[in-house]
Amino acid sequence: MNCNALIRLELPDNLVSIGNQAFFGCSNLTSVIIPKSVSNIENDMLFGRCNSLTSIIVEEGNPQYDSRDNCNAIIITAFDKLIQGCNGTKIPNGITEICRTAFCGSRINSITIPNSVTKIGYEAFNWCQELATVVVGNGVTAIGDDLTNLGNSFGSCLKLKDFYLYAINVPYTKDNTFNNTNIENAVLHVPINLVETYRTTAPWSGFKEIVALTDSNPKPEENTSEDDGREAYAVLSEASTKLTFYYDKYKEFRGGISIEPVYYDKGNVHDYVPTWFEKS
User: N or C end: fewer C-beta atoms under 10 angstroms in the chain?
Assistant: First the structure.
C-alpha cells in the first residue's frame, strides 16, 4: 500500500490470496502478473489509485480468474465479472458486471462498456479524473448498489464531457452516482424515446444537455462474426451435483467439457445419452 517506488509487480508462484487495498496508492506501478496459484482476491480498492497501471495479466491455468482476450483486467471466470481494470483495459464482450472500485483512480480518458454488462458497481469509476467519454451498452439495468446507499459509480470524474447510454430502460441509479462530477457541464446521449424520462429522473436530470443518440455516436463493440471461437460446452460443479451449459469462448478457463449437438426422434428422446456423459 502506497509504495510509490514500486513499478513492476511479480508475485510468488505459491501465493494463494490477495487482500483488500493490497496495492492501493502505488502510483508508479505499471504492470502486474497474477500467478495461477491465486484462488482468492478481495477486490475492494485492490489497485485503487494506481494511476500508472497499464498491464494486468492473470497467468493461464488459474481456475478462478482470467485476463481473457488480452483485456488487461482481472475477471472472475465462473461469473464473467470484471473485478479490476486499469488504464490499458478493454472490457471484453460477455462480461456481466463491472464490480465495485474496479477502475477507481485510474487515468482512463474513455471507456466502452459492452451490451453484455448488466450492472456497474459502486465507485467502479470513482476518481477517474481524466475520464471524458463513457459509452454504456444496452444491457445495463443497475448503476450502484441497490441494497445499500453506496454509489459514486462515476464520482469525481472531473473531465466528463459525454455520456452515451444505450440502456433499453432507465437503469436503477443511485442519486450520488455522479457525486463531485460536473455533469452540469456534460451531455447525456440516450435513446430518443427516453429523452423526456431522463430529463425528469435524478440524477440524470442534472446533465447540462440530454439529447437523442444518433448513428454517428460511438457504440459498444459487438462480435458479430459467425466464427468467433465460441463453442457449446458443459461445466460440472465441484460436488458433481450441478451441470451448467455455456456457449462462449472460455471453455478452457472454466474447465469445461466439450459437448456435441443433440439429434433425436421425438419418440426416442428418453433414450438419448450423450457420449460425453459417463454414469458413475
Answer: C
